[in-house]
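User: structure tokens for this one?
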Amino acid sequence: MRGKFITIEGTEGVGKTTNIEFIQSWMNSKKLTFGTTREPGGTPLAEQLRELLLAPREETVCNTAELLMMFAARAQHLNQVIEPMLSEGAWVLCDRFTDATYAYQGAGRHMRDDLIRDLELMVQGSLQPDLTLILDIPVQVGLARASERSAPDRFEQEQIEFFERVRNRYLQIAQDNPQRCVVIDASRSLDGVQSQISDVLENFWESR
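Assistant:
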């Protein structure tokens, strides 16, 4: 039996890392075979592309170059990690996936959805996550949280309007894909956030 593919999405500072650890604990409680990975990244080559994408630099990065690097990393990630694990029956938990490209490059960078869709079809075919949790929080709150943990990367240096567009696109994606996307109110207490996640996971488990 093919494994399940779960993705976690959200803007900066929504608490993805903490809640991924919570989901890992839930998966362990179900005695699942699973792997946790991230995008961009997940393989040595994809991690190198991640470094190129995130490192602040004086040179302006062309939007098209950024988009192509994202999908180059994704192609390698799918080929080397995600598809093999799913085919073997393991579950895959991924920190961001193609929804992030529509949010960051599509809405954030004002790139055309049809360009992203063409690359999506080429790289992943019909593959889509089985469940996507979108952690949602007001942009200013998230950026304040993110600023406390480390120096900002190239994306985190963008203006607040950029992240408002990203957040709004995530919410639109959830609205357009109710069969796989669930919005989690990440502005609540940690217990409140994880209670929401637990409910979603249990419902998914029962209906799988």
